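Bench notes, afternoon.
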Amino acid sequence: MKRNFFPRRKRRSFLTIAITLFLSAGATSQNFSEIKPSPQQVAWQDLEIGVLIHFGTNTFLDREWGDGTADPKIFSPGEVNPEQWMQAAKSAGAKYAVLVAKHHDGFCLWPSEQTDYSVKRSPWKGGKGDLVRDSSDAARKYGLKFGVYLSPWDRHDPRYPDAAAYDKYYLSQLDELAGNYGELAEFWLDGAGSAGRVYDFPRIAEELRTYQPNTLIFADVELFQYADLRWVGNEKGTVDYENWNAIDRAGFLRWRPVESDTPLRKEHWFWHPHDEGSLKSVAELVDVYNRTVGRGAQLMIGIAPDREGRLPDVDVARLKEFGEAIKKLYGTNLVALNHGHSSAEAAFDNDPDTFWSAPFGSHHATLEVSFPRAITLDRALTMEWLNDGQRVEKYSIEVYDHDSWKKIAEGQAIGHKKIDIFSPVRAERVRLNLLSTSAEAHIREFQLFNGSENQ
């Protein structure tokens, strides 16, 4: 007769230990609300608006996607002016700029020692120019952070079919960009056009960190393990979902804030002749802002110099108009302007560097603001302090009306910044009702505006 390996008592003890270990593992498993950002990610999210600059051989060939066969001599701008680009970006409210240093055609905007397919073989500045240097210097002169995009896909370089040889080439170019142009705020990375090609992304990330330990890597979600930032999933400049900074992919939970990229001209990243009708209107850009920055994401606007190397005057004017429109809409915070003293002053002080905290261990709280007389409002702006993670899971904005609270907006995520827009309403008392939070909430700002007066 076959005997049990364990005596009855010992079998029960073993089973008890196994269950205990299983439950303990489940109790300590990673949770969305426990994921926290790095200091670099926190600082990056405060930048809110950036520009992505496309300029190269495509500019002179009326193309969006080059095939790598263009003669470097085609790149012959008459008056390249990166300072004009950065001034225009700053007028739009941008705080960082990313230059496409090499697009898919393989043409390099700096004099790379790894290839002759670069500005050193163009007539521009007699082959002595360095557009990455000029752009990084201009960005810093006007107070903007600077970053670069180095396309992994290269339709020109003969080493591309040989994965090992090309990876070595790519890493050498990465070394040049990471080691010679000062601090990089962002390194753009994607697999566009690569048709299933698998790059050595771990080595790319490690190489970048050697020279730029604080640089944030932007990438598609498919490169999730190696990136710090994620793509929104479209080029419309909109976040079409409740925006959680912590996301899961294949069992990895990570803090990956969203960057939403969209060109200033509809569907065109590079400059094209006779393209005046594609320029987005101020109203369209404001709507994009409300649906990106206003949903906790970063807004990356694509700008494109013309064949002279300057942004067209109409583009410069539009960027400035957009920046002015945002300042007008969100420049007069009715809470800071009119409210009386409050125990939640840190959320009402117009200062994102301060924050109010709900009682320790709480999962529900309210922030109420009262006014000496009724105000008209049609939008609210709320910001979470995210250093300890994103905690608000459900909230509503309410006004006191005829002895009861009336809901005028609601949502499931706040994150870095949430703008709620609703029909104009008059009220003397308004509150942010935090209906469900994973732990005590931290609110940097709760602001109210009457946008109907400022449009």
